[in-house]
Amino acid sequence: MPESTLQIQIKTLPHQPGVYQYFDIDERLIYVGKAKDIKKRVSSYFNKHHDYGKTRVLVKNIASIKHIVVETENDALLLENNLIKKYKPKYNVLLKDDKSYPWICIKKERFPRVFSTRRVIKDGSEYFGPYTSMKTVKTLLGLIKGLYQLRTCNYDLSEAKIEAGKYKVCLEYHLGNCKGACEGYESEEAYAANITAIREILKGNFKDSLQQFRIQMRQYAEAMQFEDAQKIKEKLEVLENYQAKSTIVNPKISNVDVFSIVSDETYAYVNFLQLSYGSIIRSHTLELKKKLQESDVDLLELAITEIRQRFNSNSKEIYVPFKVNLGTELKITVPKLGDKKSILDLSIRNAKYFRMDKLKQVKIVDPDRHANRIMAQMKADLRLSEEPRHIECFDNSNIQGTNPVAACVVFKNGKPSKKDYRHFNIKTVEGPDDFASMEEVVYRRYKRLLDEDEPLPQLIIIDGGKGQLSSSLKSLDVLGLRGKIAIIGIAKRLEELFYPDDPIPLYLDKKSETLKIIQQLRNEAHRFGIEHHRNRRSKGALTTELENIPGVGEQTIIDLMKQFKTVKRIANAKLDELEAVVGVSRANKVYNYYHKE
Predict the structure, then answer these.
(1) What dihedral do alpha carbons 343, 344, 345, 351 form, nearest 10°?
(2) Distance (Å, rounded) from C-alpha 211 to C-alpha 214?
(3) Residue 271's closest CA among 52, 68, 24, 517?
(4) Strands 390-399 and 114-117, how do they pair?
(5) In angstroms, rounded to a whole number, what is the distance separating the alpha carbons of residues 498 and 490?
(6) What's the CA gap between 214 and 474, in Å, rounded?
(7) How many beta carbons lie within 10 A of that of residue 527, not counting itself?
(8) What sign does the dihedral 110-114-116-122 (CA atoms) show?
(9) Any idea where the UvrC family homology region profile domain is (predicted)?
(10) SS3 for 145-179, per residue?
(11) Sign of CA dihedral 128, 134, 140, 141
């Protein structure tokens, strides 16, 4: 039975923190959830029986899934809150009320108060957060209160009113929690210095404050006040795990649309993040099929117009990865660093994951279609007469001229065919000569395929550029295969591809799938060749010395190495230890070789 669209969507979800959205058959959003691992969390809805009736009904109504990838679990929690407040999905109950996550406010006033609030008011005050745990807020405010004596009253402490003696100090002053700014006992400069220090704590820079807490904890412990010491320890743990910043909610960024683009040869994917009063309230990715090799700039301009019309966006500013021309009414910002760049990076991240999900889905639904598309693309990019269904890539490996070897790796339909990989020990070439070595292995490879009537590849790739390509062509000439198999050479920089009798190299787009396949072939050939080279060199280093001992053969060496593991241990072994492994006669030969004196 073929898999449903929903099952395929679940299979291709990423193992990343983020938010998942369930839609019904009418494309209505019915549930929003957060997850540390989106794929695991969503899969759990469909892999087990749910005792709770509401969950069973929810699962039955899910027709499609969308997700938004974020950096941290904390960001996922905040984004979930934004989306539920905005769209009020049918099956979300807990967060539908108007209660929001708390902030810490430094009030814009003379002798500013510092307090927690759930409402952000645009009056010039500074807001830090939001915090996903009220425990963190209380701990931070407790820390601040313990370190700095701040006022808690809401009086208007203007200079004129203080001088007129309008206020009297309250109980907080007598308890030592306030320095009495209301009666002029504390200067505005000293108070402002404390506020500057508190601002650093709220930004996450509270190293000095933590040190003071640790001292306080030790003092309680030394005084045998263990309950108080434990309370300080719990506060320290909360603060050490505290993250000051969130990409998802930022009061400095108001109503803005964020767009990014990721593209390949045939498709472009444009992600749209909509921010309202500093909170992300929408993420949507649009897939565009390329028709005439349009540039990313053209496609992004087209997509921005389409998406803003579709979602009735009236934002006057947009963030984009590069300059676009959208008229004079919109403010275009290309962020380079800071909070704005973080938002743009999040958009790019989601565009990339959307593209990856689409490619995975195509491979599941129609694996041949994916291979056919890549083969057709490679044929066009490399100017071949037929699709390169069978590709072979050669690489030489020798280090300082020792143990020269070569490797041949084989790709079929764009994927490695490891059973067809072959190693070659260079036999006819003395010393390090890459050109002659390449000539030898190419000849040996295709001589054998011809003798055994095995199928020949449609494309041969030679790692090494013009020189190795010329040497390989000599072998194809001798075998009568020149012109029957396409052959190209790769220069070291990878972007240059050389063809026989053509001095001008071909340069491929760095984002093209053709170049990625060629890079994969070359890297695989290099890895396979180096692995064989190391094995030969290692085996040679281990056995050469033992092979010099008269009367000691291969089986004796194998038995000794199995027992002692290294040549050094064999050399230092006692005679009776050697006799126990290989007998008296051969043990004497080995022992005497290493103890000639």
Answers:
(1) 110
(2) 5
(3) 68
(4) unpaired
(5) 6
(6) 76
(7) 14
(8) positive
(9) 262-476
(10) HHHCCCCCCCCCCCHHHHHCCCCCCCHHHHCCCCC
(11) positive
- Token pair for 137: 């807020």
Q: For residue 543, how many C-alpha atoms fall within 13 Å in the half-sphere facing its CB?
A: 17
Do the Cβ atoms of 449 and 462 come closer than 8 Å? no
Q: Coil, helix or strand for 291?
A: coil
Q: What 3-state class would DSSP assign to 274? A: strand
Torsion angle in degrees (nearest 10) through CA of 86, 89, 94, 97: 40
- Identify the CA nearest to 434 among candidates 493, 506, 515, 489: 489
**Contact (CB, 8 A) for 320 and 270:** no
Can you say whether the dihedral through the CA atoms of 346, 352, 353, 358 is positive or negative? positive
DSSP state of 113: -
DSSP 214: H
Tell me the C-alpha distance between 217 and 235, whole Å.
Answer: 10
Q: How far apart are CA 139 and CA 397, in angstroms?
A: 61
Give pLDDT, residue 400.
Answer: 45
In tens, the pLDDT along 140-197 reads: 787 777 767 888 888 888 888 888 888 888 888 888 788 888 888 888 888 888 888 7
Which SS3 state, helix, strand or coil, does residue 93 take?
coil
Distance CA 570, CA 314 (A): 81
Q: Could you please report the per-residue DSSP string of 19-56?
A: EEEEE-TT--EEEEEEESSHHHHHHHHHHS--SSHHHH
CB neighbour list of residue 246: distance below 8 Å, 6 or more residues apart: 74, 75, 78, 129, 130
pTM given for the model? 0.53
- 3-state SS class at 395: strand
Average pLDDT over residues 103-114: 89
Tokens 């036999």 sit at which residue? 427
Look at residue 342 and give its three-state secondary structure.
helix
The token pair that represents 432 in the structure block: 């390090």
Strand partners, 129: none
Per DSSP, 4 falls in state P
**Count of C-beta atoms within a 10 Å radius of residue 523:** 15
Q: Which residues pair with residue 496 across a beta bridge?
A: 507
In the numeric block, the tokens 């260079």 are attached to: 426
* Angstrom distance (rounded) from CA 559 to CA 390: 43
**Pairing verdict, β 64-69 and 114-117:** unpaired
Q: Is the peptide bond before 130 cis (omega within 30 degrees of 0)?
A: yes
Between CA 204 and CA 245 the distance in angstroms is: 8
61-65, 394-398, 438-442: the lowest-pLDDT one:
394-398
User: How many angstroms separate the CA atoms of 493 and 508, rounded?
Assistant: 12
Strands (E), 459-586: 459-463, 486-490, 496-499, 502-507
Highest average pLDDT, of 245-259, 395-409, 464-478, 546-560, comes from 464-478
558 with 542: CB under 8 angstroms? no
Distance separating alpha carbons of residues 379 and 387, to the nearest angstrom: 5
Q: What is the DSSP letter of 501?
A: T
Q: Is 460 helix (H, G, I), strand (E, B) or coil?
A: strand
Strand pairing report for 402-412 and 422-425 = antiparallel
What does the CA dihedral 361, 362, 367, 371 come to, rounded to 10 degrees?
-140
Pairing of strands 317-319, 331-333: parallel
